[in-house]
Write a structure and sequence with these properties.
There is one protein chain. With 402 residues, this protein is an alpha+beta fold. The protein has two domains: 274 residues, Naphthalene 1,2-dioxygenase Alpha Subunit, Chain A, domain 1, CATH 3.90.380.10; 96 residues, 3-layer Sandwich (Rieske Iron-sulfur Protein). It has eleven helices and 17 strands. The longest helix has 16 residues. The structure holds FE2/S2 (inorganic) cluster and fe (ii) ion. The site of fe (ii) ion has 5 residues, from loops. The site of FE2/S2 (inorganic) cluster has 10 residues, from loops.
Length: 402
Amino acid sequence: MEATIERSLFEGMAREQQREGPPPGFPELPSIPGGRYTDPDFLRLEEQYLWKRSWLYALHADELPRPGSFRMWRKTGAPIIIIRGKDGRIRAFYNTCRHRGAPLLEADQGETKGFFCRYHGWTYDLDGRLMAVREKRDFPGLDTSCMGLAEVRCEMYGNWVFLNEDPDAPPLVESLGPIPSHWEHLDLGNHRHIASSSYEIACNVKILLDAFLETYHLKSIHPQTVDRFLDSRGTHILLWPWGHSMMVTPHRRPDWRDPGAVGMPEVEGVEEIFAHQNPSYNIYPNLITPPSATGIPFITFWPRSARSMVVDVHWFALEGSQGHELWPTRLSNFERILEEDTQFAPRIQESVETAGFKGMYLSYQERRIYHWHEELDRRIGKERIPEALRVRPLLGPWIAER
Ligand code: FES
Ligand SMILES: [Fe+2]
């Protein structure tokens, strides 16, 4: 992160603590229509234009240790094989044989030397090339060089693998906007995968995601945990192009240290903002991360159905952090906070489905949620959304470039 940017974050937090209201000219935000959380037609648009067309975090390279290591990934519905090739490169393919669509792999993870379809025996190599066809004499027109497995866009940032089902999407790193420049001193290449866990929650995916875009709830939901060390009145927010955003919240005491991370290896030369404050980023749409000098959690949010979702928590930390004795404590502290965040979600879902719910009425401090929804409409295309469910674009002038 450039020094001027870091300075402006500190200044921003100080300004937030002093301000008496929103800045002059900030628009009143209309309520977000509840139908955006419940209407089946809207959710179908969201699936088609958001989830099927976004760069989404899939896994860390450590999870595919050897050539031939694979994972099956189903987060957007389609079964997708993510596999490390003989050349070490990680690729992704739909798990569908080019002959008549049988699956090539049946396990959720493992190792393979290639793909062998058990229906009629076609075989493909790890790069997805069609290598052998049984009774080839009966396919006189078949050009095997054009019948490789259908590939899914798969790109890396640091050691993280992202997928995008949109073949025309711009490159991943370009799509991340200012985030890579913020994280340039985090030594991402030396971060290892530490742990992952998964939780199913009975609500629409956005109900829970919203809670991770603001700090307004800290005092009431996290009085014994996060609110004890973070001063939510100092939360400073940046809205960015592509729907991304960040907020940074000051610690109540500048010398506060995470007791669950004391003594863990720290990234050398990392900015103060990561070492001693609490920045949290949203890589649009569904990745929330508060990176720190001693570890980076990725919290990802996935739709399951209209009213159920999965939240995954992945931890990464510097080489040498693996096996540190404090990890079990640190992970369970984090899980406790997550439980605080999820406690109301199923009943909020129940409530937004009633006639008593008149929309999400947002404050200035909750504007990242509005920004998130504005981007969703840009991705879907306003003309496809019924007027009553649209979000009026208002935050354009408040979007920063860096
Ligand atoms: S479906 Fe795979 S070989 Fe026939
Ligand atoms: Fe929270």
